[in-house]
Design goal:
The protein is of the alpha/beta class. The protein has 9 helices and 12 strands. It is 39% helix and 18% strand.
């Protein structure tokens, strides 16, 4: 399958921005991210608009509803539909949340998986099966959570690392989620990032959040990226090298130019880190 290579700085593709992006250009954007659930059955004008973009830009697919940690059987029919969608639009990378979102019905929220050895084995088997059906190595995203599962045998970092190792999948690192969880649950976000396995990181998210109190942050994707999250992104680049990175913004949408400025900031951080890195650890696409 001939799939475009993902690199650089990206943005979530929203319908309200498609016409301005076509009319005014999008030179600041190297790739786009979409949730396949929002596009898989689209027809008519929007399908044509979507194809205009997929024919010209690389894409990442970030899933919302696979419920990797859920109790119901894995939805293999849905995965086959996802595979057909990814193949049709030449999308190589598919990511999902390390969480669950359904118990008999869709809950429209991401809930934490218990940090136990049994859960590691259960989720890893579902990830491996997903990879077999999709015929791709997928990446799972560290999720934000607000209440810890009542049974835990390990901390979040140990759980994430164990799942990645057991499943043989990649990591979709969301540095905003790391910061949110660090504040809400009292751990050092920088130490969490530095404890992750560099070789597993396939893709990175930055996003904004709302602070509801001194010790409570809500992962809304509804504000500009906060300075501590930019700092965590720099930490990840410095420690692990530059990975493709996308800006998430889902609510309280600003003008497109504001989003493009944040995408440009991602690109600036990537360029600066490539310039400074030693030759033995070259950035993707950079000469050494």
């Amino acid at each position: 399958m001939d799939t475009p290579y993902i690199d650089g700085a990206g943005l979530g593709l929203r319908r309200e921005f498609m016409l301005p992006l076509r009319a005014n250009g999008s030179s600041a954007i190297d790739f786009f991210e979409i949730s396949p659930e929002n596009w898989i059955d689209i027809g008519g004008r929007w399908a044509k608009e979507f194809c205009w973009f997929t024919e010209r830009f690389p894409f990442v697919a970030h899933g919302l509803s696979l419920s990797l940690g859920g109790p119901a059987p894995l939805d293999e029919g849905f995965l086959r539909r996802i595979k057909a969608f990814l193949d049709a639009h030449r999308i190589a990378l598919y990511t999902e949340h390390l969480a669950y979102c359904s118990v008999g019905a869709h809950l429209y929220d991401l809930l934490p998986i218990p940090f136990t050895g049994e859960a590691v084995r259960y989720v890893a088997e579902r990830i491996r099966r997903s990879q077999d059906i999709l015929e791709r190595r997928i990446a799972v995203e560290n999720a934000s959570y607000y209440v810890q599962a009542p049974i835990s045998e390990m901390d979040e970092l140990s759980f994430v690392k164990a799942v990645l190792e057991e499943a043989g999948c990649g990591l979709h690192l969301d540095v905003n989620n790391v910061y949110v969880n660090g504040v809400n649950h009292g751990y050092d976000p920088r130490e969490f990032v530095l404890g992750l396995p560099a070789e597993r990181i396939a893709y990175i998210h930055v996003a904004g959040h709302d602070r509801d109190g001194p010790d409570l942050i809500i992962d809304t994707h509804g504000q500009a990226v906060a300075d501590p999250v930019w700092d965590l992104l720099e930490t990840a680049y410095e420690a692990f090298g530059v990975s493709p990175t996308s800006l998430e913004r889902d609510f309280n949408m600003p003008p497109l130019d504001d989003l493009l400025a944040e995408v440009a900031r991602i690109a600036e951080l990537q360029k600066a880190r490539c310039w400074r890195r030693p030759k033995r650890a070259a950035c993707r696409g950079a000469e050494i």
